[in-house]
Amino acid sequence: MTPPPAVQGSAAQSPTAAIDPLDPVTIGARVKALRESESLSLRELALRSGVSAPMLSQVERGETSPTLTVAARIAAGLELRLSQLLRLDEDGAVTIVRAGDRSRGGAKRRGHSFEVMTAAQPGQRAELSRHTLAPGGATGAADDPPMHEPGSRETALVERGSVVLVCDGRRYELGAGDCVTFDADLPHHFENPDAGEAAFLAVVSAGLRRS
Question: What's the pLDDT score for residue 58?
């Protein structure tokens, strides 16, 4: 006996089935993740988008599929294009940043250079960067990152050399292999007190502070 065909949009999927970016459950989870990454309440997003809070709640729970007009308003409220909200700009679930494509910056006069190793994508809650400090160099001037949004946490791993983390007025000495995690929305910067070059990796995560 031939089994009945699967119902389109059914929650049951094979382990290898591709995720449909237009599925209401997928859209809802995407909207909620993006809203929370911006620390917005349903009411705040409703005010920014012109879509009512009850409708937004239904969308986030996957109970309704938003029309293109509603989806476009939600995207605008999140300061995104509709294609970004629906992930139509992304090529699958894996994103690769090649070594030559990293964004770079820093303040040469302060002996600091950095490169961002992760792609900048809407809703991404973590960023990996690599920092190099010349002898006597430092990060964190007014024109030089790190500058992070409220609630951010940062983890830094010293690759080579020695660095000093100055966080909220206190100094923490770190050597190669040492790892530190701290509230990155506090005033902070890194210094290289030695005569040799220092390098460290930093991961900044959005979210609630520990305290």
Answer: 93
173 and 78 in one domain? no
Sequence letter at residue 122? P
For residue 105, the one-letter residue type is G
Question: Distance between alpha carbon 109 and the CA centroid of its chain, in Å?
Answer: 29
Look at the chain and count its residues: 211
Structure tokens at 155: 């983890």
Same domain, 60 and 148: no
Are 193 and 159 part of one and the same domain?
yes
Q: Which domain holds residue 189?
A: 99-205
| DSSP annotation of 80 | -
- Average pLDDT of the chain? 81
Which phi and psi angles does 47 have, rounded to 5°? -65, -40
Q: What is the pTM of this model?
A: 0.60
Q: Is residue 162 part of a domain?
A: yes
Mean pLDDT of 80-89: 76
